[in-house]
Amino acid sequence: MLVFRQLFDPSSSTYTYLLADGKSGAAVLIDPVFEQVRRDAALVGELGLRLLYTLETHVHADHVTGAWLLREQTGCRIALSADSGAEGADRYLVPDDVIAFGAHNLQVRKTPGHTNGCLTYVLDDRSMAFTGDCLLIRGSGRTDFQQGDPHAMYRSVHQQIFTLPENCLLYPAHDYRGLTVTSVGEERHFNPRLGGETGEADFAGYMNNLRLAHPKKLDVAVPANLKCGRPDNEVDATAAPGWAPLRYSFAGIWEIDPHGLEEHAGALQILDVREPEEFTGPLGHIRGAVMIPLGALAERAEELARDRPIVAVCRAGSRSAQATVILREAGFGDVANLSGGMLRWRAEGYAVEGGSA
Ligand SMILES: N[C@@H](CCC(=O)N[C@@H](CS)C(=O)NCC(=O)O)C(=O)O
Ligand SMILES: [Fe+2]
User: Fold this and answer.
1) pTM for this prediction
2) Which residues line ligand 1 (CB under 6 A)?
C-alpha cells in the first residue's frame, strides 16, 4: 500500500509530499520546508514511518528547504540534482536514477527551465509525478532568474511530462490559488501557456512578459538552499523545549508522557482542567494538581505562576490539549499536555490522590 500526503506551507504556498511504503514504513519527503520540519517529522512519527530521503525538485528561491534539519533530526539522506550546484547532499541525482522506498520507487527525470537542476519525480506505476516548479497547475514556474530558460522549459514539459500517460496525476511544488492536483491530459489541453497548439516561441513570448516581482526571500533562500538548508547560525531555533521530554504532535500540541511528568513533576505546575466532580471522582487526581475547569481557564489563567512550566491534565487528554491552546493565547510559553490524560496515567500505574482503586 502506498501512503501519500500532500502538505502545505501557507507562507510560501509550497507543497511538500510524503510518500511511503505502508508495509515496510520506508518514506521519502519531497520539498520539505524549514519552518515545517517539526510538523512533518511529527506526521512521519505518528504514521510509524522511517524517513529514507528528502528529495528536492530544485534549489528553491522562495523558502529554505527542511532537508538539512530533517537529516540532523532523523538521519535521513539528502538527494537532489547533480546539476543543482548545491553542496552537502548525500546523493546527486541524474536522469533515470531510481529512488526506492520499500516496494515503491520514484524515477528521476530532468526538467530544466525554471532552474538547471530541476527534476520531476515519477512514481513507479506512472500514476503520479511531482513536477516541482516546471509544470504548475494551468501555469508554469517562472524563467526569469536562476538559469531560467523558457525554451528549455518548453522542451522539458513536452518531452518529459506530456509524454506520461494522460491520466497521470501531476503534483506541483506550488500553487498560489489553492489548487492541489492536475493531470497530464488536462494540462495538455487546458494549460494556457503550454497546452493545445502553443509552440515554443509562443511560450517564450508569454514567459518573457510575466512581469513578476522577485520572491521576497530570494536573497536568503538561494544561498541557504545551495547548502541544502544548513543555516549559517546552527543554534537550532526549532529544537524541542528543554524543560521536560516533550513530543510535538501533527495536531500542533506539545505532549508529555506519564513517565516524563512523574520525573519532572517537582519543577512543574500540574493543571487539571476537569470539572470539580471529576477531580474528586473515581479517577482521582495527580498530587499537587491545581483545578481550573476548562470553561473558566481563560478568565482564571492569572492564578497560575508564570515562572514554572505547566502540564495540563484531563480525563483522556483532549480537553487538556485545548487548555494548552488557551494558555498559549494567554502568553504562557512552556506548556504541554499530558498524553492520554488520567486514564493513561492510571493505566500505567502512576499514583493518584482520591479516586477508587
Ligand atoms: N510572491 C512570491 C513569489 C514566488 C515565486 O516567484 N515563485 C516562483 C517559484 S520559486 C514561481 O515560479 N512562481 C510562478 C508564478 O508566480 O506564477 C514570493 O515572494 O515568494
Ligand atoms: Fe522555485
Assistant:
1) 0.94
2) 12, 60-62, 133, 139, 141-142, 174, 176, 212, 215-216
